[in-house]
Amino acid sequence: MSGKRTFTMIKPDAVQNGHIGAILHDITQAGFKIAAMKYTRLTTERAGEFYAVHKERPFYQELVSYMSSGTIVAAVLEKENAVTSFRDLIGATDPQKADEGTIRKKYATSISANAIHGSDSDENAAIESSFFFSQLEMFA
Ligand code: CMP
């Protein structure tokens, strides 16, 4: 059975370009409830840890330095089939390949500065949520 929760980050480019409000509007309009939310910043060490799964990829260093370059919004979202439904809402990793109307199509600037993150599985949604939030914060 698919889970009811996913994890997201509004990335530094979207925060700097003033898109937090519009993106949260799109998310709530699509039927997601916000279970937890934080305006925060990753150190390079924490960004490296979060993206450790991509350590061997050629874009890893760029990704880590970009994700620690400015403030982000981290959030846990709730909806039926949350992971799949949210990935549909945000669109393809590369904004040039993202469908019209998706968050990345509307707000992303490049494949690395792609506006928003969405977990790729229920398991990773749980791991990523606990990276930013305590159990108490998520069930407040
Ligand atoms: P996200 O899916 O949130 O998590 C992994 C990130 O790596 C992805 O978003 C992109 O921002 C980034 N990424 C993936 N592929 C590339 C690439 N080819 N070049 C640069 N960044 C990438």
Brief write-up:
The protein has 140 residues and is of the alpha+beta class. The chain has helices at 12-16, 20-29, 44-50, 60-67, 82-90, 103-107, 122-132, 135-138; strands spanning 5-10, 33-40, 72-78, 116-118.
Description:
With 140 residues, this protein is α+β, with helices and mostly antiparallel strands. The chain has a single domain, classed as 2-Layer Sandwich (Alpha-Beta Plaits). 42% of the residues lie in helices and 17% in strands. The chain has eight helices and four strands. A four-stranded antiparallel beta sheet has the order 2-3-1-4. Helix 3 packs across helix 4. The longest helix has 11 residues. The radius of gyration is 14 Å and the shape is globular. The structure holds adenosine-3',5'-cyclic-monophosphate.
Key terms:
single chain; 140 residues; Alpha-Beta Plaits; four-stranded antiparallel sheet; globular
**What ligand molecules are bound, each kind once?**
adenosine-3',5'-cyclic-monophosphate
CATH topology: Alpha-Beta Plaits
Order the strands across the largest sheet as they lie in space: 2-3-1-4
Shape: globular
Please identify, by name, the CATH architecture. 2-Layer Sandwich
Head-to-tail CA distance between termini: 24 Å
**Relative helix content:** 40-55%
The major β-sheet equals: 4 strands, antiparallel
Secondary-structure content class: alpha+beta
CATH H level: which superfamily?
A: Nucleoside diphosphate kinase-like domain
Q: What is the averaged pLDDT score?
A: 96
Q: What's the CATH first level?
A: Alpha Beta
Round the Cα radius of gyration to an integer and report it.
14 Å
Number of helices: 8
Count of spatially separate domains: 1
